[in-house]
Design goal:
Elements: E1 2-4, H1 15-28, E2 33-38, H2 40-43, H3 50-67, E3 74-78, H4 84-93, H5 98-102, H6 105-113, H7 120-134, E4 140-142, H8 148-165, E5 173-175, H9 209-218, H10 235-248, H11 252-258, H12 263-289, H13 293-322
Parallel strand pairs: 1-2, 2-3, 4-5
Helix pairs in contact: 3-12, 4-7, 4-13, 7-8, 9-12, 10-12
The structure holds adenosine monophosphate and tryptophan.
Adenosine monophosphate (AMP) is lined by residues 5, 7-8, 16-17, 19-21, 143-144, 146-147, 181-183, 192-193, 195.
Length: 327
C-alpha cells in the first residue's frame, strides 16, 4: 500500500505523537511504500523564529530516526523541498468552500489559542494537508484522532476534483489506532497532549528520567483514590492508564487488578519507571545521531528527490486536467 503521514517540525516528539501516529509508521514502513514529510510549511501558521525554526527541522529528522523511522525503508523528506505541495494546495483552494474550512475543529482551536494571529494559512491548513496526501496517490494515512476531520475533507476534495476534471486522485482512507489515538494533556486531561503547550503537560520521547518522574508525579488526577478507567468521570487516571497499557502491553483490566487498593502514588511511581525504561533507547540513539549532521542532511536530500519524482508526475496530470499550459 502507498502510505503517507506528516508531522510538524516544532516541539519535541511526545508520547501522544508516538502512540497516535509514529508507532504505526514504524510498523507500516516494513511492508508498504511510505512517505513521511516533515511539514514545515504547516508549522509557519504559528509564529516561528527563523533560526530556531531551521534547527527544529533537522532536530525533528533526528528524532524520527532515533525512534525507528528508517530512511532505507521509507521516504523521509521536508515538505517545502517539494514545491508541488504548495502548487496543488492552491488548486485545491479554488475548489474548497470557505465555510468547510471554518468548520474545522483545529482551525477553531488554534484561532482561540492565537487570537492576535488568525492568519489565512490557519484557515487553509487542511487544503495543504490534502495536497500532501493526494500528490502521492496515497491509499492510507496513519494519524491520531485529531486529524480525521481533515482526512474527511481531503476525500471530499479528491472526489470533487475527480468528478469535475476526470479520475485523477486515489481516495485515501485513514488508519487510526484503536487505543492511544488521543492521549490527553497531563496538566489538563480534558485537552489533547500537544507539542506546543507548556512542557509539564506532555512527556517527550527524549525527556530525562528525572523529568519523566517529576511530570508523572505532578500529573492531574481525579477525586477518589481508586485506579479505575472512566474517561468521563476520571479523565486524569484514565489517560494515565491508557499510557501505561500502551507502553506495557497489559490491558486496562489487568492494570486495574494489579493496582487494586494501591492508590495513586504507587501507580504513578510504577508508570514513571515503565516510561523511563521504555524511552531510554530513544534517548541513547538520539545522542548518537546528533553528531551526524551531514548524514541527516543527506537523508533529507535523497528523500526530497524520491518524493519529487512522484509529486511532479501527479502535478503534470493536474495541470493538464485543469487547463494550465504544460511546463
Ligand atoms: P503534530 O504534533 O500536530 O504534528 O501531529 C503529528 C501526529 O501525531 C498526527 O498524526 C497527530 O494526529 C498525532 N497526535 C498529535 N497529538 C496527539 C495526541 N495527543 N494523541 C494522539 N495522537 C496525537
Ligand atoms: N495536520 C497534521 C497535524 O497537525 C500534520 C500533517 C500535515 C499531516 N500533512 C499531513 C498528517 C498529511 C497526515 C497526512 O498533525
Amino acid at each position: 500500500m502507498r502510505i503517507l503521514s506528516g508531522i510538524q517540525p516544532t516541539g519535541s516528539l511526545h508520547i501522544g505523537n508516538y502512540l497516535g501516529a509514529v508507532r504505526q509508521w514504524i510498523e507500516l514502513q516494513e511492508k508498504n511504500e511510505c512517505f513521511f514529510p516533515i511539514v514545515d510549511l504547516h508549522a509557519l501558521t504559528a509564529p516561528q523564529d527563523p533560526k530556531e525554526f531551521k534547527k527544529s527541522i533537522l532536530e525533528k529528522t533526528t528524532e524520527l530516526l532515533s525512534v525507528g523511522i528508517d530512511p532505507e525503508k521509507c521516504v523521509l523528506f521536508v515538505q517545502s523541498d517539494v514545491s508541488e505541495h504548495t502548487e496543488l494546495a492552491w488548486i485545491l483552494n479554488t475548489l474548497t468552500p470557505i465555510a468547510e474550512l471554518e468548520r474545522m475543529t483545529q482551525f477553531k482551536d488554534k484561532s482561540q489559542k492565537q487570537k492576535s494571529n488568525v492568519n489565512a494559512g490557519l484557515l487553509t491548513y487542511p487544503t495543504l494537508m490534502a495536497a500532501d496526501i493526494l500528490l502521492y496517490q496515497t491509499q492510507a494515512v496513519p494519524v491520531g484522532e485529531d486529524q480525521t476531520q481533515h482526512l474527511e475533507l481531503t476525500r471530499k476534495l479528491a472526489r470533487k476534483f475527480n468528478l469535475k476534471y476526470g479520475e485523477t486522485f486515489v481516495i485515501p482512507k485513514e488508519i487510526v489506532p484503536k487505543e492511544g489515538a488521543r492521549i490527553m494533556s497531563l496538566t489538563n486531561p480534558k485537552a489533547k497532549m500537544s507539542k506546543t503547550d507548556d512542557t509539564a503537560s506532555s512527556i517527550s520521547l527524549f525527556d530525562e528520567p528525572k523529568d519523566i518522574k517529576a511530570k508523572i508525579n505532578a500529573a492531574v488526577t481525579d477525586t477518589g483514590s481508586a485506579i479505575t478507567y472512566n474517561s468521563a468521570r476520571k479523565p486524569g487516571i484514565s489517560n494515565l492508564l491508557t499510557i501505561y497499557s500502551e507502553f506495557s502491553g497489559e490491558t486496562i483490566a489487568q492494570l486495574e487488578k494489579k493496582f487494586k487498593g494501591k492508590g495513586y502514588a504507587a501507580f504513578k511511581k510504577s508508570l514513571a519507571e515503565l516510561l523511563v525504561k521504555k524511552l531510554a533507547p530513544f534517548y541513547e540513539k538520539k545522542k548518537d545521531l546528533e553528531k551526524r549532521e551531514v548524514y541527516i542532511e543527506e537523508t533529507l536530500k535523497k528523500g526530497a528527490q524520491k518524493a519529487e519524482a512522484i509529486a511532479s508526475t501527479t502535478m503534470q496530470d493536474v495541470r493538464s486536467k485543469v487547463g494550465l499550459l504544460s511546463r
